[in-house]
Amino acid sequence: MNKPLHLIAGTPPQTAEAEKPARAARSVAEVLADSQVEDVLQELERDLVGLAPVKARIRDIAALLVIDKLRMNLGLAAQAPTLHMSFTGNPGTGKTTVAMRMAQILHRLGYVRKGHLVAVTRDDLVGQYIGHTAPKTREVLKRAMGGVLFIDEAYYLYRPENERDYGQEAIEILLQVMENQRDDLVVILAGYQDRMDTFFRSNPGLSSRIAHHLAFPDYQSDELMAIAQKMLQSQNYRLGEGAQEALSRYIGLRVRQPHFANARSLRNALDRARLRQASRLFAQRDRELTAQDLTTLEPGDILASRVFAPS
Q1: pLDDT tens digits, residue range 13-27?
Q2: Which of 58, 115, 121, 197 has its CA 20 to 30 A from that of 28?
Q3: Taking Cα atoms as reference points, which of 304, 226, 233 lies closest to residue 263?
Q4: Model pTM score
Q5: DSSP 36-79
Q6: CB neighbours (10 Å) of residue 120?
């Protein structure tokens, strides 16, 4: 009896199922399952306290991209949507973290090739002399291609009061790339709300290329306390008896002081509290320290802050 051809040739049998190409996703559930974008959205919800309007807007953008993906699968989409964004808000409100999550979403849905985030400021883009800016800017853009370029305090690129400033050259290169290579790079411009408004009015070409504007609100006191608990837990620290009340008092005073930077200022405060705890324990040379000793912040570690000093 003759053997089947696939056994003679040493090749595996080809079934009708194996020959059939994979069917393109036709439902939202299928796109979410294929891309695992829902995992990123859940991480965003779990890891970031507050920011309800920002999270809602990110979900809206994700929904737009999922539906656009379904349209492409049916041959309905003509071109990729414009995805350049503006993030406005005070320091420490999670702009960079959300940008990282956005890069993941874009990558998982196939809108960028790599999904990495390159975060820069004016100093990374603008040179100090003639002929220096263009290569600096192009080098940054080259590193960011296939992902997301996050430009913090973007308004510093434009300094009209200085005739010899080279920021405008960086802006012009940026404009070209945002238009001509928007299928391979997403740019996010970030900074204070009022300064960004002025920046966009002075650079209408940039403003016209921004599709999504997200405003990041300041954190409320209860949200800052929840953030503090997350920060402490991530480093195996806890607040001892009376320390939570001390930290609550600290937050209430600190938010009213100048240069408060939301979660960033809170992280610095906790670092200083850990420093005081370390100094306190270090002074007890002969004492055998327990895990509780090493992980507990006492009220005095917080109350020693200058915030509590009489004005």
Answers
A1: 555 455 555 677 779
A2: 115
A3: 226
A4: 0.85
A5: -HHHHHHHHHHHS-S-HHHHHHHHHHHHHHHHHHHHHHTT---S
A6: 18
